[in-house]
Specification:
This protein is α+β, with helices and mostly antiparallel strands. It has helices at residues 31-42, 75-82; strands at residues 2-5, 14-18, 24-26, 45-46, 49-55, 61-66, 70-71, 86-88, 96-98, 108-110.
Length: 125
């Protein structure tokens, strides 16, 4: 029996997951908690957020997040590869920063518009 605190909603239910009986979840307050308890022990995943360096922008870093949940076992690898990325302004919200990061099927995407330092959003090719 494993005890978890559910992170899906603000209730924070104290779940109990019985691995010996097909990952039966008890003490949940909603169906999402039951699904979370089972998934957390069989295939845990997380949506990640971070920042990357950006050149020619008003701020030195651009916030990013993964487009979906990545396997918990690959979190270090996914975060480490982000250290090699440096963007150049302008960047639009939703732009793919790194596609298919580490073969997870998820992308790193920008979560904020970042214009050029002088205020121009013109893209030069």
């Amino acid at each position: 029996m494993t005890e978890l605190i559910c992170i899906v909603c603000p209730k924070g239910c104290h779940l109990r997951v019985d691995e010996e009986n097909g990952y039966r979840v008890t003490n949940f307050g909603c169906p999402r908690g039951e699904a979370y308890g089972k998934k957390e022990l069989t295939d845990p995943t997380r949506v990640l957020t971070s920042i990357v360096h950006i050149r020619n922008a008003a701020h030195p870093c651009c916030p990013v997040k993964t487009s979906g949940a990545v396997p918990k076992a690959k979190i270090r690898e996914v975060m480490r590869m982000l250290n090699t990325v440096c963007l150049s302004a302008p960047v639009k919200i939703g732009d793919v920063v790194v596609p298919n990061v580490c073969g997870t099927g998820c992308d790193w995407v920008a979560t904020k518009d970042m214009g050029r330092e002088n205020g121009s959003n013109e893209i030069r090719i």
